[in-house]
Amino acid sequence: MTTDSPADSNSVSPELSPRLKAESKRLSHELLRIFRRPLIFGVLSLAVTDAMDIMPPLITKWAIDAIEAGRGFNVLLSLCAVYLLTSLVQAVFRFFWRKYFIGTSYQVAYHLRGRLFEHIQTLSFDYFNRTKIGELMSRLTNDLEEVRMMYGIGALLAMDALFYFISVPIIMIWLSPKLALYILIPMPIIPFIVVRISRSVHERSRIVQERLADLSAKTQENISGIRVVKAFAREDAEIASFNRVSGEYVSGALSLARVEATFHPSMEFEMGLGIFILLLFGSREVVSGGISIGTFVAFQAYMLKMVWPMTALGYAINLHQRGMASIGRCVEILDERSDIGQNEASLPETPIRGELEVRDLSFTYPTGSRPALDHISFTIPSGRTLGIIGPVGSGKSTLIHLLLRLFEAPSGSIFIDGHDVRHYTLQHLRREIGYVPQDAFLFSESVFENIAFGLKERNDLQKVRECARLAQILPDIDGLPNGINTLLGERGVNLSGGQKQRLTLARALARDPAILILDDAVSAVDTDTETRILGELKGVTSRRTSIIVSHRLASVQNADLIIHLQDGRITERGTHADLISADGAYARLWEKQRLRSELER
Length: 601
What we know:
The chain is α/β, with parallel strands linked by helices and 601 residues long.
């Protein structure tokens, strides 16, 4: 478990560039355009609801004026019926605006989440090497929740406040232009307050989301590596580190809360000032006969109704700024482009035979200071086996990653069936390759689902069992509580290292690939099991091109060509017999491993 350095833990992504800000607005408008129909229905439903909501003060005014004028009971009864009808209409349309606004907000989040996840699947290894998984999870959950709130409750509150700001002052002017003028005098101060506060909310919201992403990354990293933490007795140190990151998040959230807290008191003061003006000048108008008591009561009701849009405006601005900050963080992901290009793909998706040629291949990682591979060349005919050996860091896995186009090799350096690999689409190339990596990753699904992961026909039980047999894992599977339908824990935690490797081998075999790559795929099994696996694989590898990377020379001794890598260069090549007779590094390593095997026996 790594502990964050101070620079890392306190880092905050810089403010979005003007281009990314423009992209954020564009994405926001695009989402509005996609979901405009339900949102328009929501706005219309809200307008009807609010129209019914501003009727009661007028009805109350008419009732008071009717009582004051001594009109009959029938007038009051009619006004009561109208009041009841407005309440009924309001209740019906309140259901619809909740349905359209809140329901659409979940659809927006669903759409954007799928779009982000689909885009993440296209990014290359380089992006994941420099991006924490916990941060990506935060953007797919916390940030999308902020976006959802902006398009749901935020849009609702904004439209609600807008309707009241337009309709209520008009009604007040209609009731008494003079009194309305007095009351509406403080209103121009509101936009000034809104603009000042909204800027601070946006800046602080982005910082809070960054801190939350750091917290999510720290949590995910510690839970995933809990065995390492416990093994090294680092619980106290990790708790302290977690509390520090959590404290930074709380500090940012409190800073945001302080800014938000200034908005509502400001709005309430504005409303208090309006009530003061109403009592001061309204009472004089009533006494002088300028307005009726009913009008005065209606004015008071409408002033109170203006409290809600003031409050709603504050919430709406807060949610909008939070949502736009989160959209900006989503745009940062969507703006990423894979360095594995598809623009050169030009070959039709025909079956691959498996002839492999590497021609003067040199490669340096983007962050590397020296070549990981230096002028590598070899050729493997279709249906033959290549063995790759060498010490740690010699470039074995780098070569495999370039064959799979997990990293992009220079043009004209790797050919399959005579064609540059860059001319194959990624999907076509990788469908024709079965890959068993060093790190045996398993999904939290059943054993069957893990083996059948790459199959088009996911219900071929016979093929899945046959591949499990070839990988020498079938007896272990049958011994599980529910056999092949047993659910695995996270990353296959309820299996041993050797069992996980054999299960990933079965998964690669199930694809029936043209090229089979075993990257130290049986390092966690014992020698006898390895021998049985290699024996079973002889029939499989004879029908396809196979690449075996291993530290155990027994795994590659039957290969048609063996290459020995050292510091990114091929230092020896040939068959097993050729390399033994050459009496070089391969021969010395073979002798050491042979003696060790005899001593173990």
